[in-house]
Please model this.
Amino acid sequence: MKILVTGTAGFIGAQLAHRLLERGDEVIGVDSVNDYYDVNLKEARLARLTGHPGFTEVRQDVADRAVMADIFAKHRPERVVHLAAQAGVRYSIENPNAYVDANLVGFMNILEGCRHNQVKHLVYASSSSVYGANEAMPFSVHDNVDHPLSLYAASKKANELMAHTYSHLYKLPTTGLRFFTVYGPWGRPDMALFIFTKKILAGEPIDVFNHGHHKRDFTYIDDIVEGVIRTLDQVAQPNDQWSGAAPDPSSSKAPYRIYNIGSNNPVELSRFIEIIEERTGKKAIKNLLPMQPGDVPATYANVDDLISDVGYKPSTDVEEGIAKFVDWYREFYKV
Model:
């Protein structure tokens, strides 16, 4: 298939594009390669893709309406995976406008491109952050998610609502994937695993929010990519059993689906740090701090729908995943 993937210089996008190319798909990769974090890492990810004959790099911003319209019209992708976004809960408090441009305007441009070019399936990144103030665990796609705690979370919830509108009005099949704390080799430098590994190896103190009592459903990158590919291959269908009298948020009479992709096994942050210490052979110097604005104390994914619909459940345990990340980090940064 010809697949347009946005965010191909990003953590998940680069790994996904690599897997799609390996199985014989043609990938049009769109990324602005901005400087939100280390551009050299983004370039290194892209370098693994650019030599592949099936890969076409397009260095543009998804928030540019005219450019995105031209890309869709020129390449006519059959399916789209939209991963480009301004990420980060804490950064959304510092720079909210970036989230409007990338996550709302950018997503609108993707929807319009799909609508006008007969795209057969749009899969897009949502986030576990949409669960916000929800406390019922594990988080279920059948739960209401109307209480986000950060603008980042609100922008992802908005994406789900926008997608449903296009699924309803234009019969565009859309699937939203709520990712739960993705980690692994080639990961983002603003994420905890990267920051902790870097500072522990350098003998520098680490900031540990909520005094290490956070719980996160850490999900290994290979599991995320497998989940994306399986949902991409299974085009969203209308749910004939859906009722407006008792509306289920995860599906619709339109071709619309929402799935969690998480390990279904939350790990406390203090244990997460212990595993990094074990793998690096160094003790962390901890600066224990209270919970930050916009953060939630725990995430825990119910993945029953993912299992029943696409036959997949993430399976990489956190000890194995952290070991692979630390090994990659040492090799990539020559530590």
Q: What stands out?
A: The mean pLDDT is 95. The CA atoms of residues 106 and 167 lie 18 Å apart.
